[in-house]
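#random but structural
TW: two for the price of one
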Amino acid sequence: MLISQEWFTTMIIIAVFIPIISVIALFMIMGYEKEFRLMKVKQQNVELEKDFQQSKYMQLNAQIQPHFLFNTINLILGYARLDEKRQLVNTIENFSQYLRFSYQVQDQLIPLSMEFEQTKKYLAIQQARFESYLTIEYEVDSEVYDALVPPYTLQTLTENAFKHGLEKKAGEKYLKILLKNDDTRLVIQVIDNGVGINLKQMEATPSGHGLDNIQRRLMLLFGKENVNLLVCPSDTGTTASVSFPLQTNKSGEEHENTPS
């Protein structure tokens, strides 16, 4: 059977152009997939920024009208009336740095060391309020200081311990903060001996929304399956903990928005 020249030419054209078309189609598909991934990353960044701004709003709003603000002002006034200059200066300095952090921090992730220092400013004020009735204990693995966390993670857990537990308890108060590396995961845990957090009541307050905000941001950053947030109340207090993959700033560059 003889093959005509036209048929032979057609077969050659098909044999040459089909692979070329296939390669072009493959590159187009790869390009669309890359564009889709970029769009997904951009969407996640938008959601993270939205949640971060919401967290900042809740934090600033909570500072404008909380009992903590009034208690601190009353503490400062008390020191002024009693002419206790050293305590007065220390409290004003801690309170000033506490507020400055909330207005200056801009990063979605900050070193845990920065978050820890901010929380200790808050605790220094609470220690001044409750004096010997409050015992604070820290248990920190040295390697976690460089771990990156969303702002207000530790601070929110600590403030909740006071607002929903310790401040409602008479007598001796105890708070423990654990920051540890658990097999490449960062574990942040706050333990108190307060009255026990009422989860339903807390969910209806800004602090309850703050926990939801932290969990949402962590899930966007590390994946839903990699984040655990637990609040376990009991008759003898509450244990609140969050864990997620331990990530550090490998570039070694300082954050520009670190409060000084």
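TW: number two ↓
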Amino acid sequence: MERMTGEPAKNAPRALRADAWRNHERIIAAATALLAEHPGASMEELTLATGLGRTTVYRHFHTREHLVAEVYRTSFAGARRVFADAGLDRCPAEELLARAVAAGLAAVDAYPVLINGPGLDISVGGRLNPDYTDCLDVLARAMGRAQEAGLLDPALPCRWLANSLLDDCAGVVLFAADLRACDREPLPLVLEAFRRAWGRRGGS
């Protein structure tokens, strides 16, 4: 009998934690989607988008700033995983830029808030947001490899090149439907433009 009465009490907190985690993920997903379309969405609008009660949302995020910061932290971390999984540190040099562009497009497609800049607030106190810096690290190293291989202008900062590539990918994802209507696929378009702009003999 003691075992039977003890188990529900033991399992109840786990169920509650799982339910709370699902709500947390639901809030982040809804806020991510809304901020991608409306970067200035208010806390009320973000709360409505979740389909959850105001009390539930505020239990997880007390302010809009807190929620937006978590949306971007999650998106930057997710994008970093996309870049890490792309094999940019070990692929042949001739595949490097194409893989980097493909990873950039995949990251923006998976985390659409990156379209905004790529971020509402990539700077904190005049310095780059450390979450965004971490996000760019893998891509920046790939840009360095491309410079060593003679594919990109060696005089340009690697992190700046990584940010430029991500910006290009964001613009293409935003207008992907329009481009396909003109029979232009996003990946070769970004790759061609990036090489032309920042290749070793690229224009200004």
